Amino acid sequence: MSLPSHAQVVVIGGGIIGCSTAYHLARDHKAEVLLLEQGKLTSGSTWHAAGLVGQLRSSASITQVLRYSVDLYKRLDEETGLETGWKMSGCLRLACNEDRWTEYKRLATTARSFGMEMQLLGPSEVKALWPLMNTEDLIGASYLPTDGQANPADITQSLAKGARMNAVRIEEGVRVTGFEMEGDRIIAVETNQGRVACEKVVNCAGQWARQVGALAGINVPLQPVKHQYIVTEPIEGLSKDAATIRDPDRRTYFKEEVGGLVMGGYEPNPIPWTLGDVPDDFEFQLFDDDWDHFEQHLEQAIARVPVLETVGVKQMINGPESFTPDGNFILGAAPECSNLYVGAGFNAFGIASGGGAGWVLAEWVMSGEAPLDLWVVDIRRFSELHRDRQWVCDRTLEAYGKHYTVAFPHEEYESGRPRIVSPLYERLKARNAVFGSKLGWERPNWFALEDQEPRDHYSMGRQNWFEQVGAEHRAVREAVGLFDQSSFAKFELKGAGAGEALEQICANRVAKPVGSLTYTQLLNSRGGVECDLTVARLDEEHFYIVTGTGFRTHDSTWIRDHLPGGCRAELTDVTEDYGTLSLMGPKARRVLQSVTQADCSNEAFPFGRAQVIEIAGQPVRALRVTYVGELGWELHVPLAATGEVFDALMAAGQAHGIRPCGYRAIESLRLEKGYRAWGSDITPNDSPFEAGLGWAVKLKSEKPFMGRAACERIANAPLKKKLACFTVEDREVVLLGRETILRDGAFAGYLTSAGFGYSLGKPIGYGYVRNAEGVDDDYLLGGDYELVVATERVPARISLEPLYDPRGERIKQ
Ligand SMILES: Cc1cc2nc3c(=O)[nH]c(=O)nc-3n(C[C@H](O)[C@H](O)[C@H](O)COP(=O)(O)OP(=O)(O)OC[C@H]3O[C@@H](n4cnc5c(N)ncnc54)[C@H](O)[C@@H]3O)c2cc1C
Question: Global pTM?
C-alpha cells in the first residue's frame, strides 16, 4: 500500500467521529478525503461503547445535532446496505426526589421548545412499561419515545462504507506522526508510511486528539477517564424493546442487549487514565475489571432491577473515554492553526452525537464557518488556562461526577479555584463576596450580608442570594454601584489600516472620530451574530476592543481570521494589562467627578465617548457606556493600580450610598433594560434584525462589511422570527430560559434568557417569536401570550420596548 501524495482533506481517526466526518465531507461536499487510522476502524473508544442514543440537551443546536444522528442511523442501511442496529426503544429517566422531578418538568418543557414530545409518567405507568423495575421509590419518570439505541461498531462500519461509496480513501494501520507547517498552516501530514500534502486536516483522534493536536501546537483539552459497564446473561421477562433507562438518583443507566442488560454508571469518584500520552498501540484494548470501584453501581442497580441479584454477568467492559472540563464535546477550527479542525472529547455521548457531529463538522471544514450556533461545543470556548493538564483533569473529573446530579440553576464548579483573580479579590472577599468562575477568573456574583455565610445554597426555587441581589440592583438604580469586571477580554488593534480593517469586520460604523465608542456586532456570511462587543477609537489607528470574559479566544480568533489581506495593523490581547471597574448609577457622575480633575459633565464627556482621565494619579481609560441601563462609566485601569482606584471610588462614593455589586445584579439590570446577551439572545443563528439590533448595522452607508449581502437580504424580506420581551405577573414564577412561548395557544418559540427584574418586581424573559409567514410588530402585539414553565401554562405580557427607561434618558443625561 502506498499513500497518495496529496489529499484535499485528511481526517485522522477511524472511530465513529472520523468516519462520520469523512462520510459527510464526501457525500455533501464532494471533497477528496483521505482517512487515516493507526489501528483498525473502531479500535479506539468506539468498539466498546454501550450504544445508548439520547437526543435532548440544554442547547437547541446540540439537540438538533443529536436528532440528525437519529435520522441518519434510521436510514443509513438503505444507502450502504449495512445495518446500524438502530432501535427506537425510547428512554425513561427516573425521578426519586422533588428536585429531580422539577428538573424533568423543566426538561419536558425544553423538549417541547425544541420540537420534541417528552411525557411525564407516574410510577404505575413506568412499571407497565418496564415490569422488572422496582418503582417503589419513584415520584415518576420522563419518557422520550424517540430516543433509542444502536450498535456503535455497526454504525461506524456503515458510515465508513458510505464514505467509501463517495470515494473516500480509508487507510488502516497508518499513524499520523507529525505535521509540516508553513506559518500557522499545515501543508502536509507526516505518517509512519510517508508524507501526504493536504489543504485541510480534521483531528478526530479520540483520546489521542490532545497529543495529535500538540503536534501542530494546538490545545485539545480533554482527559481520558475509565468508564465501566457490565453485560448480563439473558434475563427472563426482559422485553427486546425495553426502553433504555437513566436512573440518575442512583447514578446508573441500563440498556437491553441480546436479552440481557447493559448496566453502567457515573460515579462521584471517577478514575482518570493517564496525564501523559495515551499509548499509540492501545488498540481494541480494555483495562482490568475494577469490581471494587463498580460495586457502588451494582448495589444501586440491584435496588432498581432486583433480578440483577441473581443473573450472571457475562462481561465487564472497562474502557477509556475522553471527557472535557465542561461535559461538552470539542468541535471546530483550532484557534492556533488556521486549517486544522477538531472533533473530539465526546464525554460518553459520541455515539449519540456521531452522525450529527460529522455533519456539522464537515460543513465547518468546507465553509470555514460553523453552520449553526455551536458555541457550547466550540473549541474557542477554551483559553490558555486549558493548557494546564492537571487543572483540566481536576475540572473534568468534577464534571464527570456531576453527570447525574440534579442540575440546579446557577450552579458553579468548585474544582481548580481560585485560579485567576483580579487585584480586588481579597478586598471583595473581605466584603463577603460570593464568587463564580468564568474561564478561570473568580468573579463576584453577589455579596452576602455581614452575618451571612458567603455561599450559594442551590435549590430549584428562589435561591439564598435572591434578596441580596435585589438590594444590589436597587443600589444601582437609585444610587451607585461598583462592579469588578476585570475579567473582560480586551484587545487592541493598532497600526496602519486598523480603522479600515475594523470597518470591514464590524456591522456598525466604528472608524468614527477619535474618542468615539461604538457597540457593534461582527457577522458571519449568513448575517448571524458571531461577536458582540464595544470598540473605542483611542487614536487614528489605535482601537481598544472590549468583549465578554468567556469570548476571549473566540472573538480574538474571529477578528484575526477576518483581518483583510495586507492589513498591517496588529491585534494584541491586553486582557491582563487592565483591571475594569464599572461605576454605574444615577450618582456615578458625582462619585467620578470627586476623584478626577477631568470634566465629567455630560457636555464634556457624553454617552458613547472614550477618554483617558486621571484617577489616583493613574491614567484610566474611561468608557461612557452601560450594560445596566444607568448613567455610568467603565473604567479600564492599569492592572496594578486597580486596587488603589477601587479604594478611591469607594471612599468618594460613601456619601452617595455606593456599594460593590456582582454579576447576578448585572443580569437582572440588563434584562430590564433589554440588552442582549451573546450566546443566548444573540447567536450565530440570529441576525441583528431579528434581534432588534438592526439600528447597529450600517446598511445606509455604502461600506462593504462582513455579512452585508446577507443583511440586505434579511432586511428586505419579512422576518421569520423576532426577539421580544415577556413579563409574568406572578412574581413567584421562576424563569430560567428555554420556557415555551405560546401565542394564541400555539407554539411560537422559546425563551433564550430569563430572570427576575427587581425594579419591575416581575420575572422577565426574552425569546424569538417565530412565524413562517412573517413577524412584524403588529403580529407580535396582535397575539395573546402564555409561557410554559415546567409544564404549567402561565399568562405573559409581551413588550417591544425596554421595560425600564424606554427612551434611554437615564443613561444619556
Ligand atoms: C464504557 C463506555 C461506554 C460508552 N457508552 C456510550 C453510549 O452508550 N452512548 C454514546 O453515545 N457513547 C458512549 N460512549 C462514548 C463513545 O464510545 C465515544 O464517545 C466515541 O466512541 C468516540 O468516538 P471517536 O471517534 O471520537 O474516538 P475513537 O473511537 O477513540 O476513535 C479515534 C481513533 O483515532 C485513531 N488515532 C488516534 N491517533 C491517531 C494517529 N496519530 N494517527 C491515526 N489514527 C489515530 C485511534 O486509533 C482511534 O481509532 C461510551 C464510552 C465508553 C468508554
Answer: 0.97
